[in-house]
Amino acid sequence: MDYQNVLVTGAAGFIGFHLSRRLLDQGKCVIGIDNLNDYYDVRLKKDRLAILEEYEKFQFHQIHLEDKTQLDKIFASGAIDIVINLAAQAGVRYSLENPHAYVNANLVGFVNILECCRHNPVKHLVFASSSSVYGANTNMPFSVHHNVDHPVSLYAATKKANELMAHTYSHLYGLPCTGLRFFTVYGPWGRPDMALFLFTRAILSGEPIKVFNHGKMQRDFTYIDDIVEGVVRVMAKRPEPNPEWRGDAPDPGTSYAPYKIYNIGNNDPVELSAFIDEIEHALGKKAEKNYMDIQPGDVPATYADIDDLMRDVGFKPQTPLAEGIGKFIDWYKTYYNHSAVS
Fold first, then answer.
1. For residue 125, what are the β-bridge partners?
2. Contact predicate 166/177, CB 8 Å
């Protein structure tokens, strides 16, 4: 599918920044939206944004997705071929403290995106879901064809709700929608609330790190470049109705409507203790560890089945963990000028 004009929500965020830069490097026109909220260091978001604003074909709007009036104006200002919805209130643990932020950004904001796509000639809506939707499911590896009706955090519930809302618009209005369940994304310019960032900063500062579930947690850590490659390939492939879909045996990953769900993960879960070992090796410094119980809302393990992604777009994430961590630490030391304090 040919496209030129792409709207990226959450463009100043971690994944949104990397994706926008990739699209701009390809000569695409990118309209970026972000509210630049202070969930984490706004300076980091502004520095990402400053890089994107060096491109002629990038334009930026600082708005909340909940502001439908402003969103309508952006959609009405020109033909948008593809919408990539990456804006969301992120974080599992924060959803226990501030649930209303998730309802506003992830539910109200998303229905506004759906409405704008419905009323404008958008060819494809690609939206971020999350591995967290698998919740209490322990059938590994996680498949998009598994039932995901038992979330264990409000964040996960809002992401599952996004999938359901998108399917409804595919059914009612024929809007092609693809949901992407991301698995623990890491890399340069990453989020300060994520484990790699927290561990690196603490180790360099000589501070103890919190090791939840006593280091037995498993995560399918996925490098940012692999995530972006997967998104770009999926963007160009609009979902088609599955002719074999049956209402008496419904497949959660496909539909009779133009709707599809993919996992994008490394397909290689790593135990948290081994992840920390890699960070220590890259830093040349040992961590002081405080072992703790698993936190409310966390799942003990994630592991992506990516068969559908490989079959449909011919891609499998392949960046080795040691290489990805090394690239993050190189960026971290440069960005913070070898300082351990952000």
1. 83, 177
2. yes
Q: What is the pTM of this model?
A: 0.95
Scanning 174-271, the segments in alpha helix (DSSP H) are: 195-205, 224-235
* CA atoms within a 13 Å half-sphere pointing along the CA-CB vector of 262: 29
Q: What is the pLDDT of residues 245-281, one digit of tens each?
A: 999 999 999 999 999 999 999 988 999 999 999 999 9
- Integer-rounded Cα Rg, in Å, for the chain is 19
Which is catalytic among the residues 39, 94, 155, 262? 155
d(CA 285, CA 277): 10
How many Å apart are CA 332 and CA 66, to the nearest integer?
33
CA separation (Å) from 310 to 23, 155, 158, 202, 223? Answer: 21, 27, 27, 37, 17
Q: Residue-wise over 278-313: b if at least 16 C-beta within 10 A, else e?
A: bbeebbeeebeeeeeeeeebebebbbbbbbbbeebb
Q: Are 118 and 152 in contact (CB under 8 A)?
A: no
Judge whether 289 and 209 are in contact, CB under 8 Å: yes
Looking at residue 99, what DSSP letter applies? H
Q: Please give the Cα distance from 311 to 165 (Å, whole number).
A: 26
Catalytic residue check, 173: no
Give residue-wise pLDDT tens across range 206-258: 999 988 888 888 999 999 999 999 999 999 999 999 999 999 999 999 999 99
Q: Largest Cα–Cα distance of the chain, in whole Å?
A: 59
134: Cβ contacts below 8 Å, ≥ 6 apart: 142, 146, 148, 299, 302
